[in-house]
Design brief:
alpha+beta, 46% helix, 4 strands, 213 residues, single chain, 7 helices, globular
């Protein structure tokens, strides 16, 4: 590097994302963060939250209530996998679940979970957690950690940027390359602004998934 070149910070930023694997918007955000990890010196930690927990006790449309009832299964299995095998298994298992749920458009969660566990190299026995409340306390604790940072008037995704958390970003399609890096830069900027709370506009498009999976 030339002597007159500007000094580049070697400090790595820390981010955390809370996701529910059935949420298409969380999936979009997670794909963006994967791009950010390539475009900026950022380390992402992946954590589980639950739309089923968030909406428990609310008066929901019957179709959405049916989704919330079914959505317990994937987050319970993710929580069980983390308890048994550590944080490192969350992202590969999330990727395997999300590929089937979002790219393949499937809702047969029993089969999805079995296939995703196999793809992630995890024991098939973990699928039993889908119908068990054994890991609900740990699931609720992970969910509550996100809610404590942002409040309960949000859904998924939640991200934390250097300890400052907010709902979003909600993006479609997911930015790639330097565009992903620039969006990250904006998130860092607003996270570092005291008193900043919200930017929002009405969504005019649904999730646009990458065709290559």
């Amino acid at each position: 590097m030339p002597d007159d070149a500007p000094e580049v910070s070697r400090a790595r930023a820390q981010a955390e994302m809370w996701f529910d694997p059935v949420c298409p918007w969380a999936w979009m955000t997670s794909r963006w963060l994967m791009e950010v990890e390539q475009a900026r010196p950022v380390d992402v930690t992946w954590s589980v939250m639950s739309l089923s927990v968030l909406n428990q006790g609310r008066d929901l449309d019957p179709d959405y209530q049916a989704l919330m009832d079914a959505a317990w299964a994937p987050v319970r299995v993710l929580t069980a996998a983390r308890a048994a095998h550590g944080d490192a298994v969350l992202k590969p298992l999330y990727d395997a679940l999300g590929e089937r749920i979002h790219h393949q458009g499937r809702r047969d969660y029993g089969h999805i979970i079995a296939e995703a566990l196999a793809e992630a190299g995890l024991p098939a026995e973990l699928a039993a957690a889908a119908d068990s409340e054994s890991y609900d306390e740990a699931l609720r604790a992970s969910h509550q950690r996100a809610i404590d940072l942002v409040g309960d008037e949000v859904g998924t995704p939640v991200i934390s940027v250097e300890g400052v958390a907010f709902f979003g970003p909600v993006v479609s399609p997911s930015p790639k390359g330097e565009a992903a890096g620039r969006l990250w830069d904006g998130c860092v900027l607003v996270a570092g602004t005291p008193g900043f709370y919200e930017l929002k506009r009405t969504r005019t498009t649904g999730p646009i998934f990458d065709q290559e999976g």
